[in-house]
């Protein structure tokens, strides 16, 4: 313990990243406090990964049981399948409450001081906390910022939380609109589209860029369109922006051409989900107290050791992790960053290897990836003077997939032709989120595709 300070480490923000960092800090012998103004678990536990997985699990089961053609092929007949919307919503909410309590208890059990209030920097190695009892200042050898992110709402979009809403409100599943417009075809938009269509809603999917799922590898996006979009009750509007969205009954959406910004169509739907990405929650963090300015997008600039940078140089004893760094907006990436920051604090040099962190969309079937897309790998190859090769394998040739009657799918491996080093892997199909881990381990060890094959 550092003498003269209240704590060795104060963490601002108790999302999955801050929680993981606190657990690791205690394991390393640091006297630790964590400050949270809202709910333990942050976005992931309360408004993100956890409730969405619960809704996807329940709605996916409904989809499966209603797919008479698939069940008949396996020799199974299921009579009328029904569900209760409120019971599915309760399943998600109960899971949130359980995991939130488990996280709080794990911290308290290990002796982490959990402080409820708004924490912000008050100078070097100082944090002020506003609680219901008033304001106080705490000192620490090291301070870690883990404020997370909030949904981005484009200009012209008016929210009412009921008919026009972000994922924060959508996960409550208060009602099932007959016709939902989903703005954005990234992970959040795809997962909600999967939930809503399984429960009988009609979808209009709006994407500003000229192709659906622009963040995914092109081969995966193409197959996803064939498996996840075309056979379902989904209409797509590509190269369009929702210039103006007005809540009500109906919701009125003015669609404009993404290039010309001219209104080309007006939609009237029952509800609209805004899934246009997330932005860092870096307001009122006291960054100015230590002379820090977020970048033009609002992110806190850090190096690979997770130290906060000021004019390119690390600020002593100040660290930042998670969505607010803009590195990789995934809960498990935040956890990895938190552990790495604590390791560096303790004098053990470590960096985050972003290329080996996998990600998944828990649609039915799942989509997963780790490392680079083919276009990104080719760009790197061009810059560094190597050729990129690709190997594709289809689920229709996989005996287990055939046995399950789930032969739609593709696994794609991207690698350097000269050394065979695996640069990326992308899977769409049954159990994609489980299967990706083998490729993630290979990339973490910078293995060749030949070693992976053996």
Task: Describe this protein's structure.
This protein has 454 residues and is of the alpha/beta class. It folds into 3 domains: 7-47 and 91-150 and 279-352, 3-Layer(bba) Sandwich (FAD/NAD(P)-binding domain); 164-276, FAD/NAD(P)-binding domain, CATH 3.50.50; 357-453, Enolase-like, domain 1. Helix content is 32%, strand content 29%. It contains 13 helices and 23 strands. The chain has helices at residues 16-27, 42-47, 49-66, 68-73, 85-109, 167-170, 187-198, 218-229, 331-345, 374-384, 399-404, 432-444, 449-453, and strands spanning 7-12, 32-36, 113-116, 118-123, 126-131, 134-145, 149-151, 164-166, 179-183, 202-207, 234-238, 240-246, 251-257, 263-269, 271-274, 278-280, 307-310, 313-320, 359-361, 366-371, 388-394, 410-416, 422-429. The strands form 5 sheets. Strands 1, 2, 3, 4, 5, 6, 17 and 18 form an 8-stranded mixed β-sheet that branches. A 5-stranded parallel β-sheet has the order 8-15-9-10-11. Helix 3 runs parallel beside helix 7 (187-198). It starts with 6 loop residues before the first strand and ends with a helix.
Q: What is the level 1 CATH name of the largest domain?
A: Alpha Beta
Quickly give the structural class: alpha/beta
> Helix count?
13
Give the N-to-C terminal Cα separation.
48 Å
Shape by Cα distribution? globular
Number of strands: 23
Q: Just name the CATH architecture of the largest domain.
A: 3-Layer(bba) Sandwich
In CATH, the homologous superfamily of the largest domain goes by the name FAD/NAD(P)-binding domain
* CATH topology-level fold name of the largest domain: FAD/NAD(P)-binding domain
Give the proportion of residues in helices: 25-40%
- Proportion of beta-strand residues: 25-35%
Please outline the major beta sheet: 8 strands, mixed
Spatial extent as radius of gyration: 23 Å
Low-confidence stretches: none
- Mean pLDDT level: 95
What is the total number of structural domains?
3
């Amino acid at each position: 313990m550092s003498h003269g300070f209240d704590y060795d480490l104060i963490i601002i923000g108790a999302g999955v990243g801050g929680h993981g960092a606190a657990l690791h800090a205690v394991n390393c012998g640091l006297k630790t406090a964590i400050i949270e103004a809202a709910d333990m678990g942050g976005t992931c536990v309360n408004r993100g990964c956890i409730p969405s997985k619960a809704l996807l699990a329940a709605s996916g089961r409904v989809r499966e049981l209603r797919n008479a053609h698939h069940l008949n092929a396996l020799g199974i007949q299921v009579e009328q399948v029904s569900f209760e919307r409120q019971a599915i919503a309760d399943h998600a909410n109960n899971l949130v409450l359980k995991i939130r309590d488990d996280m709080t208890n794990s911290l308290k059990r290990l002796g982490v001081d959990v402080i409820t209030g708004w924490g912000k920097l008050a100078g070097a190695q100082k944090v002020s906390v506003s609680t219901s009892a008033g304001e106080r200042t705490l000192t620490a050898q090291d301070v870690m910022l883990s404020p997370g992110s909030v949904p981005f709402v484009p200009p012209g979009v008016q929210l009412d939380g009921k008919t026009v809403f972000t994922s924060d409100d959508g996960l409550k599943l208060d009602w099932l609109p007959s016709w939902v417009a989903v703005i954005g075809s990234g992970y959040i938009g795809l997962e909600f589209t999967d939930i809503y269509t399984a429960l009988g809603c009609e979808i209009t999917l709006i994407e500003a860029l000229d192709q659906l799922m622009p963040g995914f590898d092109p081969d995966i996006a193409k197959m996803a369109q064939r498996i996840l979009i075309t056979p379902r009750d989904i209409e797509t509007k590509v190269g369009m922006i929702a210039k103006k969205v007005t809540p009500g009954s109906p919701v009125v959406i003015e669609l404009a051409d993404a290039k010309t910004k001219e209104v080309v169509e007006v939609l009237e739907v029952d509800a609209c989900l805004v899934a246009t990405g997330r932005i860092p929650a870096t307001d009122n963090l006291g960054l100015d107290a230590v002379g820090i300015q977020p970048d033009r997008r609002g992110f806190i600039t850090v190096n690979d050791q997770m130290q906060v940078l000021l004019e390119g140089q690390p600020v002593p004893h100040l660290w930042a992790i998670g969505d607010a760094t803009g590195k990789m907006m995934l809960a498990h990436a935040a956890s990895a960053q938190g552990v790495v920051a604590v390791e560096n604090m303790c004098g053990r040099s470590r960096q985050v290897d972003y290329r080996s962190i996998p990600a998944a969309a828990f649609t039915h079937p799942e989509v997963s990836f780790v490392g680079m897309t083919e276009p990104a790998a080719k760009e790197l190859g061009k810059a560094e003077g190597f050729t990129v090769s690709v190997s594709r394998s289809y689920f229709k040739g996989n005996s287990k997939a055939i046995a399950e009657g789930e032969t739609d799918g593709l696994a794609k491996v991207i690698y350097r032709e000269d050394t065979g080093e695996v640069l990326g892997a992308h899977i769409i199909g049954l159990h994609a989120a489980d299967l990706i881990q083998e490729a993630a381990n290979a990339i973490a060890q910078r293995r060749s595709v030949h070693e992976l094959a053996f």
